[in-house]
Amino acid sequence: MKITVDRTLCDGNGVCMGLAPDVFDVDDDLVLHIADEIPDDPAIQAQVRQAVSSCPVLALTLEE
């Protein structure tokens, strides 16, 4: 599972962080950070899928 963020689209709104806080973090400057490795946990992976599909600006893509 690999997540890619389009930095030209991402506005740091934090929807992804709210849905998958173990993987996504938005800092004080509204810059999105993604964990280096996605835990091999089905619940967290489901959260990641939901976060990617819920991005309001479509800045995230997921490769399984």
What does this structure look like?
The chain has 64 residues and is an alpha+beta fold. It has one domain: Alpha-Beta Plaits. Helix content is 28%, strand content 22%. The chain is built from two helices and four strands, in the order βαββαβ. It has helices at residues 15-19, 42-54; strands spanning 2-5, 24-26, 32-34, 60-63. The chain has a two-stranded antiparallel sheet with strand order 1-4.
Brief account:
This protein has 64 residues and is an alpha+beta fold. The chain is built from two helices and four strands; from the N terminus they run βαββαβ.
Which properties best describe this structure?
alpha+beta; Alpha-Beta Plaits; 64 residues; two-stranded antiparallel sheet
Task: Name the structural class.
Answer: alpha+beta
Radius of gyration: 11 Å
- What is the total number of structural domains? 1
The CATH class is identified as Alpha Beta
- Estimate the mean pLDDT confidence: 97
User: Which H/E pattern describes the elements?
Assistant: EHEEHE
What is the CA–CA distance across the termini? 4 Å
